[in-house]
Structures are given as structure tokens and as C-alpha cells.
Fold this sequence. Notes:
Radius of gyration: 17 Å
Helix content: over 70%
Distance between the termini: 10 Å
CATH superfamily: Multidrug efflux transporter AcrB transmembrane domain
Shape: elongated
Strand content: under 5%
Structural class: mainly alpha
Largest sheet: none
CATH class: Mainly Alpha
Number of strands: 0
Number of domains: 1
CATH architecture: Up-down Bundle
Number of helices: 4
Amino acid sequence: MFRSIVMGVFVVLPVSLTTLYMAGLAGYFKIPLDVSTVLAAGVAIGVGVDYAVHYIFRYVDGIKMSQDHQHATRAAMRGVGKTIVFNAVVVTAGFAVLFFSLFPPHVKLGYFVAAYMFLSCIIALLVLPILFSYKGSKTKVAVS
């Protein structure tokens, strides 16, 4: 979509950081790797990538209009930041229904996906502006 290896890394990095953090927490709390935790990671990676794609798409539009990182970041946050947060809340709420399941693996899946969605949203909205700030300070952002 962006025809850039750097942009591909930017798409994958937030969700990768989220997955590493969640795996670290699971290891720290001695939560075993099982079907629920792996399935939660799969769902979260799919949705988490969407957060990054939406943000990057809007950021690139902002750069095309103004060539200014600050303006593009503000435009992206105003344009899709709220949407990303809303999406994270809705997906989290949808999976939170599983908290009340009588089947323990479903409860665990609900907790993991909810935690992933919350964390993925936060990391995407924090890490991507930092990445673009760094990239912009080194070279101009590629806008094809």
C-alpha cells in the first residue's frame, strides 16, 4: 500500500512491541502459552496492524498537504486518533463479554484480547509519531 520498506516496518513495529510486551507479562506472571493466548495474539495482531495503517495513511496525507511533521501529526491524531481509540474500546468491549463465560479458555481469551487491544492502541498512538519524528529529522518522509 505504501510501497516502502520503512513504512512496512512502521506498520509492524507497534503491534510487534505490543506482542512482545504481552508475552513478557504472560511469562512474568507464569501464564502458560495455550490456545487462548495464541488465538488472542492472532486477533490482536490483525486488529493492531489496522491501527497503524490508519494512522500512517492519515499522516502521509498530512505530510503531502503541509510538509510539516507537527501539522501532519496533529492532523493524524485529530482525524484517526479518536477513531482508533473508539475502535479499540469497541473491540475490547466486544471481547469483554467473554469475561462472563463459563468456559475458562474463553474467559482467558477475553482478557488477553482486551489487554492487547488497549495496549496496541496506546502503543500505536505513541510510537508512530515518535517514529515519524525521527524519520523526518533524518530525511523527508517518502510520499508517493
